Amino acid sequence: MAYASQSGRARTSSSSPQAHAICDRCGFRYNHVDLQWQYDWRGAALQNIRILVCNSCVDTPQDQLRAIVVPADPIPIMQARVQDFRQAETDYQTVTAPPIIDPTTGIPIPVNVTLSTEDGENLLTQQTGVPTGLTQGAVMPLVGKEHFSVKLNPLSVSAVGTDQIAVTFSAAHGLVTDAQISVEGLSDPDACGFYSITVTTATAFTYQTNKAIPAASLLTGTTNMVTALVGLPYGFTQIPQTGI
């Protein structure tokens, strides 16, 4: 009986002896068979943290230690049939009057056309002409291997009496057709703005204005011509001009 007084919370029986053990958490004596391993979350799996505890001390694994398992992406289907939105798109044109033939393009122009989206919202007509609200400080300084906002030093900028402006240089300018420029400080403000160029020679190019400019030399001491990069509407390769 002397040993029974030291049994703590363990059962002691001479007919069915069982080993005693100490709970690693509270320190009380229990039968070894009544202790259990403590588990806790480590990542996405439960891990035995190697302590034996009694029923009163065992903890529920802490979910905040559990890693969040993100489900796998859906498996792509074979032979998918995706809607060809460009072919299927419609602008729901409603013509309420006989069309007028454009004298320049020969394309019929309905007098009254309503353009709307599929949800019934009215569409805005595509603007033409030099983009408004742009400044030379808004051009992108660098994209890939092409540099923009690079100053060009023309030898001459001349109007020829039409909507074409001719620009020449003393050395190769290094530009290609449809490259964009920003022009400020010419003697005729109608020739200033953002334009797409057409290369004529290695040292010359032209650009189209929105109106005929009287023949004259347009270069001044304050002329500032730099390469530019202006976002264009879908399907456009050049900055849109009036009449295009």
In angstroms, what is the radius of gyration?
41 Å
* Shape estimate: elongated
DSSP strand tally: 18
**Average pLDDT metric:** 80
Task: Describe the structure in your own words.
- The chain folds into three domains: 62 residues, no CATH class; 34 residues, no CATH class; 93 residues, Beta Barrel (Elongation Factor Tu (Ef-tu), domain 3), CATH 2.40.30.20.
- The longest helix has 4 residues.
- The radius of gyration is 41 Å and the shape is elongated.
- The N and C termini lie far apart (111 Å).
- It has one helix and 18 strands.
- By secondary structure, it is mostly beta strands.
- Strands 11-18-14-15-16-13-12-17 form an eight-stranded antiparallel sheet, with no helix packed on it.
- A hairpin with a 6-residue loop joins strand 1 and strand 2.
